[in-house]
Amino acid sequence: MLFRTSLLAFAALIAVPASAQQAQVETRQVGTARLENVPEIPQDIRDAVQRYQNYREARFQDWLPDGSMLITTRFGSTFQVHHVTAPGAARRQLTYFNEPVGGAKIVPGKERFVLTRDTGGDEWFQLFVRDLNGLAQPLTEPVTRNQSPVFAKDGSLMVWSRATKGSADYAIMAADPADADSRRLVWQGTGAVGPQDISADKATVLLGRGISNRENQLMLLDMASGKVTPLDFTIKAKARFEEPRFVDGGKAILAITNAGGDFRRLVKIDIASGQMTQLSDKLNWDVEAYDLSTDGRTLAYTINEDGFSRVLVSSLTTPEAISSPKLPRGVITALAFSPDGGKLAISLTNATTAGDVWDVDMRSGAVTRWTQSEAGELDPAMLVEPELVRFKSFDGLSVPAFVYRPKNAGPDAKLPVIIDIHGGPEAQTRPSWNPGAQYFADVLGAVVILPNVRGSDGYGTKYLNLDNGPLREDSVKDIGALIDWAGRQPGMDAGRIAVYGQSYGGYMSLASMTFYSDKLVGGVERYGISDFISFMANTEAYRRDNRRAEYGDERDPKMRAVFERIAPLKNVGKITKPMLVMQGANDPRVPQSESDQVVAALRGNGVETWYVLYADEGHGFMKKANNDLRREVETVFLSKLFAQ
User: Fold this and answer.
1) Residues 6+ apart with CB under 8 A from 548
2) Rounded to whole angstroms, what are the CA distances from 413 to 246, 253, 410, 482, 489?
């Protein structure tokens, strides 16, 4: 309580009249960040932030042939690749880049792996190959975007997709991962194409073309001729076919799909006929991921049940015989069979654990923990388990949300509220490790609500499509209903509610401020869309068609008129409460111009506006020092809002 009292006293000292802010922008540099109108951060806030930022997590990447693992974890500023030889063994760091490693995959049968890394968050990913000892060698060309590497079973062939600046089209590349000079162009595609699997004889590559986050199409690429044959059943279905891979000697495909139903399920598809056979349990929840053992006999897949993950294991030939390993309740972020099929690796996180790696013995069912990540200086007793609630929106739709309530709040306390809106929009807030929600609940004494508004994933295709195109603002109305719901709850202060979001959630924060400024004390938005028309013009070319399929096509006069009407920038005069805006200068998705223009417009209207711009970040802040500063600024800003 003493710390919160000091925050409130500090907030009173930094109040800046809107007229004074309009007259002058106070700018200073902290590390790589330019801070505008942000006051100095008190030391007690820095100390509080560190308690919640010094945790460590482990993320499974791949198995090595000898049964050891590659994981990524952070010992310094960024996530790097580490080798773990056995459960509980030390993590031996293998990479030491200043930039974070995005992922690592083992070259089959080799003690060699391919890793993905960009520069400053620009998402122009490069691929590198490295042995367990030695230096990482580049496989790709600078100023290209390289992704989706897949391997032949003998490790002699790798195929991936490559985009170049200014083009929306991807090419299919191939190389022997042991020889960068063998790199060659196999096929120049149209649109967002990428490899999914390679046939056993290395003659055919299974390709996917992304139409939108609701639809993709599968194709077969003949490696010898470069000829591509579309699989017509995927075109007719107008659905998603995720994680497709060859089975039955290349005569069939396994995939996760929502074709013919509301929820995603695991199916086996006969290529010749297009006939689908469901392999997953017949539940009204999405299958989110799966793996098939090397011998092709055992399936493991995860079900997303109201945000929580459950692992199911079955035989490919008798899928109705299902078992479920006994794992801690939470969210599974990776699963993969060991090369011999005897173990199943699982990355798992939950509300009170940052993330670790486990394995399941497929014979005995025994569960073994491989990593034990540190919680830093956090008191586990103060960590909150979120409550899953549902509230009614303007049209009667039931909307789920996770609510974090401070553990040390008095029974009669009326607490401030932070509504934290996820990005995507096709993402889903889940009960995984969320240091921000835990921090705000403990340090600010705020109730943190994380809604899954219409358009969120995890609740079926119909729910996912409820905000498409001209229906965009219906999801904003969900936030309006949540504001009203929170104001009626005991323990929540209707006079102290703030909105908060990143990426698409940043747009939602801005839009909510234009709708409900009279009910809110202010908002925080990180790299959010302020105008869909300028966003479409400036987002990287390789993303544009995908985003048009979700948001609507700005080239259509009717849709353009909708964008003109709903853009927060066009309605910025309705925002009357303070805003904090943060941005990465290298963001290829939501470019800096989206933040620059809304900051200028807010200040032009005399609205108190803080702005933080990171020179070495993109879409999301990946370096620890930058994230620390971000949380410090948020703390000072929100403390001031809640003190008024």
Assistant:
1) 536, 554
2) 58, 56, 5, 20, 12
Element (H, E) at 113: strand 112-117
Cα separation, 180 vs 529, in Å, equals 39
Contacts of 486 (CB under 8 A, 6+ apart): 417, 419, 447, 449, 492, 494, 497
Q: Which residues of 96-113 are buried (b: 16+ CB within 10 A; e: fewer)?
A: eeebbbbbbbbbbebebb
Residue-level pLDDT at 91: 95
Average pLDDT for 132-141 = 93
Report CA torsion sign: 263, 266, 271, 275.
Answer: negative
Tell whether omega for the bond before 39 is within 30 degrees of 0, i.e. cis: no
Residue 476: CB atoms within 10 Å: 22
Contact indicator for 193, 152 with CB cutoff of 8 Å? no
Q: CA-CA distance, 325 to 335, in Å (whole number)?
A: 12
Gyration radius of the chain over CA positions? 25
Tell me: pLDDT of 18 over 80. Answer: no
CA 288/CA 284 separation, integer angstroms: 13
Residue 122 DSSP SS3: coil
Tell me the three state secondary structure of residue 15: coil
For helices 435-443 and 43-53, angle between their N-to-C axes, nearest 10 degrees: 140
Quick: pLDDT tens for 147-172. Answer: 999 999 999 999 999 999 999 999 99
Residue 347's SS3 state is: strand
C-alpha dihedral (22, 27, 32, 38), degrees to nearest 10: -70
The whole-model pTM stands at 0.93
Tell me the C-alpha distance between 494 and 478, whole Å.
17
Q: In the chain, how long is the greatest CA-to-CA distance?
A: 73
Q: What is the pLDDT of residues 335-349, one digit of tens each?
A: 999 999 999 999 999
Distance in angstroms (rounded) separating the CA atoms of residues 507 and 479: 12
